[in-house]
Amino acid sequence: MLRIRAEEKALLIWNMEYARAAYISDEELQVIEQWTSGKNSGFSDRLKKLGIVCDSAIPKVKEAIVTAAYKKAPPRSFCAPESLHIELTSRCPFECSQCYKDCSGVDLSYEILFDAVKQADEMNVFQIALGGGEPLVYPYLIPVVAEIRKRGMASSITTSGFGLSNDLLSALKRVGLNHVQISLNGSCREVHSRSRDGYEYGVDALELLKNAKISFGINWVARMDNIDDLINLIEVAKNCRANNVNVLRYKPSPKESYENFCLTFEKLNLLESIIRNTKDINIRVDSAFSNLLCHMNKRTSFFSGCGAGRRFLALDADGYYRPCSHVDMKEESGDLQKVWYHSTNLAMFRSVAEKISEPCLSCRYMNGCFGCRSVVLGQGDDFFSGDRTCAYSQSSTSPSIISSRLSACSACANMA
Ligand code: SF4
Ligand code: SF4
């Protein structure tokens, strides 16, 4: 199923089956327009091969091209989020040391949830990512997945695995769930338990998913106390036939000292080498690791860097919209479109690249990276501060920062 969205002099096309979005730029629009009039090209053939367009979509593509001529997006953003991240509940049976959330035990109201899903559909959002707390304990999980599917959007759930049974999984598949991500920080209980509770629920869930004929993957947070176990974790993922391992950057947690667990330069290099050398499974990298991505790709683009307020938006269990679930900047509103276009919080995120300070300001990757605001704010820095812990900083202030991080590396090497 394709969702086709007019953007400002561009198109965004989402293929739900392949969970793949394609951006058709201003210049490429002309080629696509010619294809809608029967003139094929190498570009249109490639898009067809990737499943991004098909002949039956021609009327909708034509209509979207007309609309794209007058659409106006917020600066450095799209006309709507690609995905909406919904915290269904802040209830969770665990007390993980790395958790950055206030697990106050609130469930998102049914009315707010279903209204947000309806508005997301009206704005042509592509995907709804359901999380928590622990989303599997939310009472309206099955109805909301069914509603998302009914409206032609994709849904995914990120869970510890707590409460996942064959019956629940079958019910979720029946109502159209597209994907499950299991949070697992280690290949064995000992490593996982350094930062998360509930190891057995994670591995039991993977065992269920292995034979369930549904797309699933593992969310793994890169930390000093589990980085040396990543190769083993990738083997676990391969053995259970997971589709991906999603490598997430460690974010500050109120229960831990960030400096003790964020990766040192040496361990970032190890992570890079593992990502480069892993075969037979898809390794994804969190956009909070935009510095690592820029370093690996040696280039930046409009799509790289923090996606908060640009590609996605979060709704928390109290019903507040946030640019990203990791930052405590929230606003109450019953109007998703108004938030997307007029929120001052989102405007701040979208203007980071224009206002950021060193070390990011003079970094060659700045335009496609500009660091992670959750990491910056979590260390007590101002919103527009550069990421002073970044190992890839090219600015004049970076050597001392890198060398102090390297000494931190040897100081806590035995934690890995
Ligand atoms: S602030 Fe950080 S965690 Fe949040 S979306 Fe941006 S990069 Fe990701
Ligand atoms: S210094 Fe800033 S812009 Fe440069 S790679 Fe690091 S986080 Fe990104």
Individual helix count: 17
CATH superfamily heading of the largest domain = Aldolase class I
Helix content: 25-40%
Q: Which geometry do the CA atoms define?
A: globular
| First-to-last CA distance | 44 Å
- By secondary-structure content and strand pairing, the structural class works out as alpha/beta
C-alpha-based Rg, rounded: 21 Å
Order of helices and strands: EEEHHHEHEHEHEHHEHEHHEHEEEHHHHH
Fold blueprint:
Elements: E1 2-7, E2 10-15, E3 20-24, H1 26-36, H2 42-49, H3 58-68, E4 83-87, H4 110-122, E5 127-131, H5 141-150, E6 154-159, H6 166-174, E7 179-183, H7 189-192, H8 199-210, E8 215-222, H9 230-239, E9 244-249, H10 258-261, H11 265-277, E10 282-285, H12 290-297, E11 312-315, E12 320-322, E13 331-332, H13 336-342, H14 344-350, H15 352-355, H16 373-378, H17 398-411
Parallel strand pairs: 4-5, 4-11, 5-6, 6-7, 7-8, 8-9, 9-10
Antiparallel strand pairs: 1-2, 2-3, 11-12, 12-13
Helix pairs in contact: 1-3
This protein binds iron/sulfur cluster (2 copies).
Overview of this protein structure:
Strand 11 and strand 12 form a beta hairpin. The protein has helices at residues 26-36, 42-49, 58-68, 110-122, 141-150, 166-174, 189-192, 199-210, 230-239, 258-261, 265-277, 290-297, 336-342, 344-350, 352-355, 373-378, 398-411, and strands at 2-7, 10-15, 20-24, 83-87, 127-131, 154-159, 179-183, 215-222, 244-249, 282-285, 312-315, 320-322, 331-332. It has three domains: 2-68, no CATH class; 83-351, Aldolase class I (TIM Barrel, Alpha-Beta Barrel), CATH 3.20.20.70; 353-410, no CATH class. The strands form two sheets. The chain has a ten-stranded mixed sheet. Helix 1 packs antiparallel against helix 3 (58-68). It is globular. The chain is 36% helix and 16% strand. The structure holds iron/sulfur cluster (SF4) (2 copies). The site of one iron/sulfur cluster has 15 residues, from helix 12.
